[in-house]
């Protein structure tokens, strides 16, 4: 356990909070403790490509991003914030060192994912899934966050972080901490999960553990399906060192020419489109690289040569995109060009088998131009994102119990085979959706499909940040356009790692007659909005959906998200104004029931936090409760500190990174920070304020980060129905309760898992509670 942060001495009249010991660029002792789920892939074990992502997840088209959705967590957040001179509640300057380091906080988030894999109470295939999620998350962290930090150091633009660490200190912290976590990750697989799977009849074996019959069968498979797509690349004066693509598995082979006696180096790339684990016999799986590296198989690749040694390695590259929108005549073409350059980004991490020969490693380090600090020796097999395929095996007894969402009761009082009439339901009342507990397909998807088919609907306006490859949402919009409706679709083609897919869908939508726009120069459009305009008698009625998650039917079964369906005209008018801003030249900055970034969202939230201070001073009910993926915006964090100094209770439920130091005397004594991870990716954003006994609650797309509040179009909608406000308040209270399983953040930046009560009994799982509530409502609860 880390020692408590000592009370710092006053310096120049200021209180300076000393950094936690674990903020320093040294290794942190691993904490042995026992996020979300991956979709099932029936049949053959597939090679799942690494994800974005958190929770999330987390890429959406492979669904590994369903867990982390790292785009909201991992992007560069470089806006300057002058923490000096920020005044607290008492008029004194807020202390230095009050922000936790965001990189360390992100690594702590991924450690929480790892703890779920280490937890013996997690179903076994879900543990394998969490191991894959951890690996996928870390891949993107290096591709984006570490790569960006290295680039800024190299160009001399890096500055001291808000936590007080110099850029080089942050980089060393990342190297040391990630090395410890990767070692724990490998040990969890080797010593725990693999052996547990073997006890259940699922054997993950290496080549030398196969029977002679299994090896013979795989030799036939190698000759017929693997050998034809392999390309050995020699390295000699006539053959320069080959380009090594990011995240590819590679075989470094040393061969000897028996005639000349010379030794040579060659590289064999493991084909990424083949299955990562091959089934040698029923329920016995071997990594594909072991099959390629079998002595007889290497002899096929290098006939007449003596195979002296072979080693696996894997390289991570900078795969972030930089598109100069202001100078680009055509954003679509500029982005496509940049996508071609992405694969040639500089290296940021080299994973090697720990048994690698020193001479081979020296060659790789030299040719790849990577430092020793960026080399990660690990026990094989490398690249445990391949466990996504194992986790997808059809063994339901080794997974979380299956849950199928039902239709929201306000859309269909009694579920039947007929689709609910969404418009009729919304004329009666607003509908607050909570996915995945409420079905996305019979709510949001049905809303858009009904609008596309309804002859009285005149127009549909829609934002798309991410969607699936076989999207029924896109199909509905195309059907609407082809039937003569006015369809406006704002496609965010800069959605990280979904750029290529979104370009494809943008063109398909354009070809069908939709009006496709790409948002505003310099801003990503991240808000989740749908607007349907319908002719009803002599009037036009606007139906709206404002959500916290993407219009992605597949991840809607894995992400925890909220959405408001409403026929309230003030919301419809707000969405009309906002869409006009996105597609035209409107400069509207104020709305009726929306807070919209980059102009009004941060200021709107801070003003409400400040109002809670006034209510508390006057003795009126006051509190601040926030649920987000990330909480790192310094201006918002400072407003929470001021509220806490005034005595306002502040609860922060965060999935990923958090810069708040809770529980610091004189600064944040009334602030609590919790994190919940489980089978679903916690993804919703909720902002609730006591407001003198008339609670004010908002939901929407924005996380508390610079880039969300300054460089994105984000939208929050105010929830007005008293029952809906009460439901959201109960959700926040449950997530923050000491009787709910969660991680608690300490002032030193360490997270502590609370999964058992003092008697050793499991604490309540908020996700399972919500599942049980839906089952009881449908009469399918387990006894």
* Helical stretch tally: 20
Number of strands: 29
What kind of sheet is the major sheet?
Answer: 10 strands, mixed
Alpha carbon gap, first and last residue: 41 Å
Spans of at least 5 consecutive residues whose pLDDT stays below 50 are 1-73, 321-329
Content-based structural category: alpha/beta
How much helical structure, as a percent, in the residues? 25-40%
Mean residue pLDDT: 85
**Alpha-carbon Rg, integer:** 27 Å
Q: How much of the polypeptide forms β-strand, as a percent range?
A: 15-25%
Coarse morphology: globular
Cofactor: Mg(2+)
Binding site for ATP: 137, 559, 655, 683
Family: Belongs to the polyphosphate kinase 1 (PPK1) family.
Keywords: ATP-binding, Kinase, Magnesium, Metal-binding, Nucleotide-binding, Phosphoprotein, Transferase
What would your notes on this structure say?
- The protein is of the alpha/beta class and 783 residues long.
- 33% of the residues lie in helices and 20% in strands.
- It contains 20 helices and 29 strands.
- Strands 16, 20, 21, 22, 23, 25, 26, 27, 28 and 29 form a 10-stranded mixed beta sheet that branches. Strands 12, 13, 14, 15, 17, 18, 19 and 24 form an 8-stranded mixed beta sheet that branches.
- A hairpin with a 2-residue loop joins strand 17 and strand 18 (539-547).
- The model is unreliable at 1-73 and 321-329 (pLDDT under 50).
Explain briefly what this protein structure is:
The chain is of the alpha/beta class. It is 33% helix and 20% strand. Mean pLDDT is 85; it is low at 1-73 and 321-329.
């Amino acid at each position: 356990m880390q020692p408590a942060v000592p009370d710092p001495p006053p310096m120049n009249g200021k209180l300076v909070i000393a950094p936690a010991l674990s903020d320093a660029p040294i290794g942190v002792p691993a904490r042995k403790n026992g996020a979300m789920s991956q979709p099932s892939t029936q049949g053959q074990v597939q090679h799942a490509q690494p994800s974005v992502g958190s929770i999330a997840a987390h890429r959406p088209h492979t669904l590994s991003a369903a867990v982390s959705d790292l785009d909201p967590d991992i992007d560069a957040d470089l806006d300057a914030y002058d923490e000096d001179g920020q005044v607290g509640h008492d008029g004194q300057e807020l202390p230095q060192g009050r922000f936790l380091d965001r990189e360390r906080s992100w690594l702590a988030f991924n450690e929480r994912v790892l703890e779920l894999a280490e937890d013996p109470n997690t179903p076994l295939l879900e543990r394998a899934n969490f191991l894959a999620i951890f690996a996928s998350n870390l891949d993107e962290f290096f591709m984006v966050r570490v790569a960006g930090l290295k680039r800024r150091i190299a160009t001399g633009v890096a500055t001291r972080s808000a936590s007080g660490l110099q850029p080089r200190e942050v980089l060393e912290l990342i190297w040391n901490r990630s090395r410890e976590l990767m070692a724990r990750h490998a040990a969890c697989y080797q010593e725990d999960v693999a052996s547990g799977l073997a006890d259940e009849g699922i054997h993950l074996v290496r080549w030398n553990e196969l029977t002679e019959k299994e090896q013979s069968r795989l030799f036939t498979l190698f000759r017929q399906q693997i050998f034809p797509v392999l390309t050995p690349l020699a390295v000699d004066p006539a053959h320069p060192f080959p380009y090594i693509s990011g995240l590819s598995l590679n075989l470094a082979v040393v061969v000897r020419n028996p005639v000349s006696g010379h030794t040579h180096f060659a590289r064999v790339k493991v084909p990424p489109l083949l299955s990562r684990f091959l089934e040698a016999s029923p329920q016995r799986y071997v990594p594909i690289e072991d099959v390629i590296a079998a002595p007889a198989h290497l002899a096929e690749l290098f006939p007449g040569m003596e195979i002296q040694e072979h080693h696996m390695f894997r390289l991570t590259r900078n795969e972030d995109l930089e598109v100069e929108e202001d100078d680009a005549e055509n954003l679509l073409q500029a982005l496509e060009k940049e996508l071609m350059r992405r694969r040639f980004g500089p290296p940021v991490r080299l994973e090697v088998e720990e048994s690698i020969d020193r001479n081979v490693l020296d060659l790789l380090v030299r040719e790849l131009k990577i430092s020793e600090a960026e080399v990660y020796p690990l026990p094989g097999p490398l690249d445990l994102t391949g466990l996504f395929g194992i986790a997808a095996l059809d063994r339901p007894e080794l997974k979380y119990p299956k849950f199928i969402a039902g239709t929201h009761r306000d859309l269909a009082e009694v579920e039947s085979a007929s689709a609910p009439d969404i418009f009729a339901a919304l004329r009666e009342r607003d509908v607050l959706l909570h996915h995945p507990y409420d079905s996305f397909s019979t709510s949001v998807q049905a809303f858009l499909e009904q609008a596309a088919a309804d002859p009285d609907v005149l127009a549909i306006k829609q934002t798309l940040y991410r969607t699936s490859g076989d999207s029924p949402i896109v199909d509905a919009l195309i059907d609407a356009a082809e039937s003569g409706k006015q369809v406006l679709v704002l496609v965010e083609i800069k959605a990280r790692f979904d750029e290529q897919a979104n370009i494809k869908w943008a063109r398909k939508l354009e070809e069908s007659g939709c009006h496709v726009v790409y948002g505003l120069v310099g801003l990503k459009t991240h808000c989740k909005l749908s607007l349907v305009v319908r002719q009803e008698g002599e009037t036009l009625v606007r139906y709206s959906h404002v959500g916290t998650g993407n219009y992605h039917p597949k991840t809607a079964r894995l992400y925890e998200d909220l959405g408001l369906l409403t026929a309230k005209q003030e919301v419809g008018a707000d969405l009309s104004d906002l869409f006009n801003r996105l597609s035209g030249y409107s400069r509207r900055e104020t709305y009726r029931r929306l807070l919209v970034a980059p102009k009004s969202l941060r200021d709107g939230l801070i003003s409400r936090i400040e109002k809670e201070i006034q209510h508390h001073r006057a003795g009126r009910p006051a509190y601040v409760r926030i649920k987000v993926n990330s909480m790192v915006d310094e201006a918002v964090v400072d407003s929470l500190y001021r509220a806490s100094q005034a005595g306002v209770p502040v609860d922060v439920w965060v999935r990923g990174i958090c810069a708040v130091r809770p529980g610091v005397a004189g600064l944040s004594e009334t602030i609590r920070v919790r994190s919940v991870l489980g089978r679903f990716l916690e993804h919703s954003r909720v902002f609730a304020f006591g407001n003198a006994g008339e609670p004010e609650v908002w939901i929407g797309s924005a996380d508390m980060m610079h880039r969300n509040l300054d460089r994105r179009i984000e939208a929050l909608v105010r929830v007005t129905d008293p029952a809906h406000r009460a439901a959201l308040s109960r959700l926040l209270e449950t997530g923050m309760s000491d009787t709910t399983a969660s991680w608690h953040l300490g002032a030193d930046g360490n997270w502590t898992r609370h999964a058992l009560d003092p008697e050793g009994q499991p604490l309540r799982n908020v996700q399972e509670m919500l599942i049980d509530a839906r089952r009881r409502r449908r009469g399918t609860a387990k006894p």
